[in-house]
Amino acid sequence: MSISWIVIALILGFLVIFQIAKASEYVSILRGEEKTRKENNRINAFLLLAFLVVGMFGVWYCNERLKGKILGEAASNHGERIDSMLWITLWITGIVFVITQVLLFWFSYKYQEKEGRKAFFYPHNNKLELIWTVIPAITLTILVGFGLYYWFQITGEAPKDSQVVEVWGKQFNWEFRYPGKDGEFGKRYYKDIDETKGNPLGQNWNDPANHDDVYVTGDVHVVVGKPVKFIINAKDVIHDVGLVHFRMKMDAVPGIPTTMWFTPKYTTRQMREKYGPDFNYEISCDQMCGKGHFSMRGTVIVETQEEFNAWMATKKSQYAVANAPAAQDPAQTPGALQTTPAGSTDSVTGKPVALLNK
Ligand SMILES: [Cu+2]
After folding, report:
1. Could you tell me the distance, in angstroms and rounded to a whole number, from the CA of residue 111 to the centre of ligand 1?
2. Residue 81 CA, ligand 1 centroid: distance in Å
């Protein structure tokens, strides 16, 4: 119903404008084309000036209205630099924007057609061309240079004492793996992925490095002030790890692990004191990945080392979870699970056994 009203209003609006245009055409014939043209020219010049003033006011007003609604301060070391880079870019482009727009609209008003005034023919000036080519080129090169420098840091080698967490995107939630006490992730093979057997990541139970790896889903816990490196994977389609409060973002691509690292600056508790009790660090999917894309919302819990240790102590390794019932049955010891050749991997090479036998 409301759509038909909008269509009727649009048609009526179009008819009104059409009739006005037709009427003004008749008027101009009656009053003489030249006079009307000059009058229109004056009106347009004034409208351009009005557009400048209203437009600039609109820019200011939008900023005022949305001031408190944008994200709070960046909560990671890299995030701070990304924010400052954003502000520098906004200041530079903002100043250029105001100067060029004022000149553009003011000049069209000031130098509108006037009796006895002729346009000044000024076709070329090498010096000017050079100035407005070289200065933006240098500025942009510096901005891009800083961007690249930070990018290489974020995706580059993480500090030695970093906590490492595997992040898995799938339709439609996030899964995580911690390396356990040995600090090493066990081998895995995609054909071993079987949630019904308690092996959602395809871990190879023959690899002892897997025996203490901890699997969690939904929330990921990290330690405040300690660098954390995410090794990012996807199980089905391309997802994207979006950590907006840390100003971090990285694609999760099937078959191609990506990495990024950062140091969280504040615990979740500190952020709640600042931004209210509902605050949560969010991990979202920033890549449209299917009909459940919107629901890929997880939480990053930033806490102290003690709190993290206490939380980790409550977690069982996935090896223990997957092989728990087998403990009573000697025929189904953890090792026995690997006797099924389909999808098994060699514990040394990590290659599928089926391939090795050929
Ligand atoms: Cu997704």
Report:
1. 54
2. 27
- The letter for the amino acid at 180 is G
352: amino acid identity, one letter: P
Expressed in angstroms and rounded, the spacing between residue 293 Cα and the centre of ligand 1 is 5
What spacing in Å lies between the alpha carbon of 190 and ligand 1's midpoint? 19
Structure tokens at 208: 């002892």
Query: Separation of 246 CA from ligand 1 center, angstroms?
Result: 19
pLDDT in tens, 239-291: 999 999 999 999 999 989 999 999 999 999 999 998 889 889 999 999 999 99
Span from the CA of 175 to the centroid of ligand 1 (angstroms):
12
pLDDT above 80 for 186: yes
Distance 113 CA to ligand 1 centre (A): 57
Cα 26 to ligand 1 centroid, rounded to whole Å: 60
How remote is the CA of residue 201 from the centroid of ligand 1, in Å? 17
Q: How many CA atoms lie within 13 A of 357 on its CB side?
A: 8
At 213-223, the pLDDT tens digits run 889 888 899 99
Strand 163-170, strand 228-234: pairing: parallel
**Residue in the structure block whose two tokens are 């727009």:** 101
d(CA 31, CA 68): 55
Cα 206 to averaged position of ligand 1 atoms, centre (Å):
31
Q: What are phi and psi of 169, to 5 degrees?
A: -100, 135
Tell me the C-alpha distance between 61 and 87, whole Å: 19
What pTM, to 2 d.p., does this model score? 0.73
Flag whether pLDDT at 61 surpasses 70. yes
Give 296 Cα–ligand 1 centroid separation in angstroms. Answer: 6
> pLDDT digits over 109-156, tens only?
998 888 888 888 888 899 999 999 999 999 999 999 999 999 999 999
Expressed in angstroms, the distance from the first to the final Cα of the chain is 69
Cα 195 to averaged position of ligand 1 atoms, centre (Å): 19
Determine the Cα–Cα distance for residues 209 and 188; give it in Å rounded to an integer.
11
